[in-house]
Amino acid sequence: MSDPVASKSGFLCMYMKNHPDTLVAYVKYFGKVEGNVLTAEMSSIDSKGMALVYKLKSGQPDSIRVSFDPPLSGYTISFTRLSVYEEVKPRLLNMKAEAQEGLGMLKAPQITTFRIPRMAAFTGIIVFFYFYFLSPPPLGTTFLSVPVTYVDTFFSPAHAFRNATGLGLSFRTACAIFVTIHGAETLYTWSLCKQYVKGTIVTAAYVGSTMIVGFPMWIDIKRRVQQKRIESVMKAE
């Protein structure tokens, strides 16, 4: 299967000639090129990355390849030149803002409000079924003043699942796995909050929510940061 971005590489490279400052920022930040970069050009681009040719003040030419992480292969790209650029454009704008932030040319975007992404409800359901099916309480267990028969009836599908599959975990083991995975994600969310989230309450909300529902929270932060980066670049242009 042909690469839809590579097939339009010539058009995209020609377009980017109008943005030499952006290409220089790519070279210095993503290529980790030190020294005074005078010029930079995009020589090719595909769904996995782009090749950049640059020249230093000393006159020495060189080239680097900047990879896309994740690749652009997830985009649905049609066959017209304009639509290809419209699909690639958000990634290039986000990378421009990231490079300028890293080079101290642009302030990092700040998130000042908390929101719960829709995906959080889905992962909340997964967490419920994780404990329900893998770690149901033993038969005869009661909670507060709920009759034992009600509790046993409620968890009877879970016990049937365990008997049929042999899958199951003790409640302590299930909790340990849950805390380990979500704990790591919470630390990652905390690192993102230190960079991009303003306010103790908003930070605490994101960190606490990550411990409960996991990855949807840090994904939402990254999406909001990307959106703000693109908005800032568009305003500058």
Describe this entry's structure for a reader.
The chain has 237 residues and is mostly helical. Helix content is 57%, strand content 11%. The protein contains nine helices and three strands; from the N terminus they run ααβββααααααα. It has helices spanning 9-16, 20-29, 81-102, 119-134, 148-154, 156-165, 171-196, 200-213, 215-236, and strands at 37-46, 49-56, 61-67. Strands 1-2-3 form a three-stranded antiparallel beta sheet. A hairpin with a 4-residue loop joins strand 2 and strand 3 (61-67). The two termini are 36 Å apart. 20% of the residues are buried. Mean pLDDT is 87; it is low at 74-82.
List keywords for this structure.
three-stranded antiparallel β-sheet; 9 helices; mainly alpha
Protein topology:
Blueprint: H1 9-16, H2 20-29, E1 37-46, E2 49-56, E3 61-67, H3 81-102, H4 119-134, H5 148-154, H6 156-165, H7 171-196, H8 200-213, H9 215-236
Antiparallel strand pairs: 1-2, 2-3
Helix pairs in contact: 2-3, 3-9, 7-8, 7-9, 8-9
Summarize the structure.
The chain has 237 residues and is mainly α.
